[in-house]
Amino acid sequence: MSTPPSKPPSPGIRRAGPDGRPLGPDGKPMGPILLRDEYKNLVDGFTNDIKKELSKEVKSLLLIGSYVTAEHIAGESDCDFLIVLDEKASGDNFQQSMEAISKIVFKYLEDPLFGSIIDVEVLGASDVPTKGDTDYPWTKVLVAQRGKTLIGDNPFTKIKISEENIKMSAKEMALVYLEQLEEIIATDEIDEYDQRYLTVEAVLGCGCAYLYYHGEKEFYRSSAIILFEDKYRDKIDIDPIQISHRLRLAVKTLDMKDFIPKSLDFCKKVVSELK
User: Fold this and answer.
1) Euclidean distance between CA atoms 112 and 244, whole angstroms
2) Are 47 and 79 within one domain?
3) Does 144 fall in a domain?
């Protein structure tokens, strides 16, 4: 996004306002704001490619995550796809199906516009949980149930999830992120930027686990901060969550002193409370 130059522009160059539109003689922006929605372009393109190349192999293609309800953080949130394969494309044919899907995904990973936001998960037909024990996290089932169907139907919508299963999955989720953060802190080879990025991921992951455990279901990482500030600020120190959220928004005027130690304390507190 361009900003007005600090000195008069050279002849033939029109000044631009904060939103990128050219400024008229009166100093006001001219013309409509034209924004290219890389998320919509990605959804349309990826869906068409899957239909064209894998119509027989893919039983369901779901769009999941914050973009479904326009709660995403543009340029930072992922555009998440969940593919469920047909029976014939699963099992012994799973690897072959994955290779075909990977070719399509790689096309978008190579594109600078989409490479940093596309995220694709693939499940075999038998991997979709029904009831009882499952290796697929129940917290992820909740997210999938809120997904938008792009191809086929949504096999998650009719799955019944007990509160016990949600709590169990939330505990496991929090522990994984705590272990991730402990490993990050113990590793000297990670540069400051990556360390901070991964710390934010761990904090938000533990934060989401905390919310799931306490019965919250209608939220995403991008909107979790609202619940913490409205309902949980008196129950747990939300400072690491607030800083993590602002870092995702690329806010630069932040007090980062002791952010990582405080983040570790936050994740340990979450894991301790969920036991």
Assistant:
1) 25
2) yes
3) yes
Buried b (16+ CB within 10 A) or exposed e, 229-251: eeebeeebebbbbbbbbebbeee
For residue 97, give the nearest of 79, 85, 109 by alpha carbon.
Answer: 85
- Domain boundary among the residues 95, 124, 151 is at 151
Residue 7 within any structural domain of the chain = no
Residues 36-61 as b/e (b if ≥16 CB within 10 A, e otherwise) read eebbeebbeebeebbeeebeebbbbb
pLDDT above 70 for 224: yes
Give the amino acid at 239. Answer: D
Residue 99 belongs to a domain with what CATH number? Answer: 3.30.300.90
- Partners of 67 in the beta sheet? none
Only one residue has tokens 């160059």, namely: 13
For the chain, how many structural domains are there in total? 2
DSSP annotation of 221 reads: G
Q: Is the dihedral of CA 120, 205, 78, 252 positive or negative?
A: negative
pTM over 0.70: yes
Confidence of residue 80 (pLDDT cuts 50, 70, 90): very high
Say how far apart CA 138 and CA 197 lie, in whole Å.
26
Specify the pLDDT at position 24. Answer: 59
Does residue 56 sit in the same domain as residue 133? Answer: yes
The predicted structure's pLDDT at residue 275: 87
